[in-house]
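seq/struct pair 1
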Amino acid sequence: MNQSDITEQYLNKCFDDFSKEQMRLLNDMKGATSDDKDKEIQKQLTLLNGLVSGCLRLRNLKKQLIAKSNL
């Protein structure tokens, strides 16, 4: 692998950071006092859900590629 490759460890860190942000936003949503704030938090959560899913997919694809190259 090149030094510029995205590593599995980096993807795991991104996943952890995005998951923490999701939890923070969920807690913020519980205390939201207006519908506008709630909608903004929901937009952020939607984007984060996509990022989390993408990180997991990329990590799994990289694992599969490494496993195939080691055969």
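seq/struct pair 2
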Amino acid sequence: MTTTTRTYSQLIAGEVLAVETLLEGRPYGYDPNNIDEADDEHTRYRDALNQLELPQDYDPADILADYLNNYALEVTWLATNRDRDDYKKTRAEILRTCGGPRCEIIRDSTDGQIIEINTYDAGQPVDSVRVWAPALAEHLDDLAAEMGPQ
């Protein structure tokens, strides 16, 4: 693993966590014009907007679509037959490479509420970061079930 691949993995993990924060919605009482506000929840929300280079008055309703449209080079949606509990197994593979090594964001419905970020060098996986992102996991599972081959 190189420093570059590790740094890139951490950068993409930060984006994933920022999307997760925005999927939770705008905090109660959030004022986009009050940048001096010290409330932790508002600061976390503001930091997520900054991480994704979004304006402070951004409406998070479309964050997943906006993130995929602006950052993903390719998205592959997969859905398999239902398991014993009548739960559709899904997988989303998001190619996220821009100015750095090849990076994939993977969501597999059999992996709890985890999103995995794999970074490659010369075609070989060299770094992997796993983040807990329950809201993003649920949204990606729903999209994969809807969009994936049946």
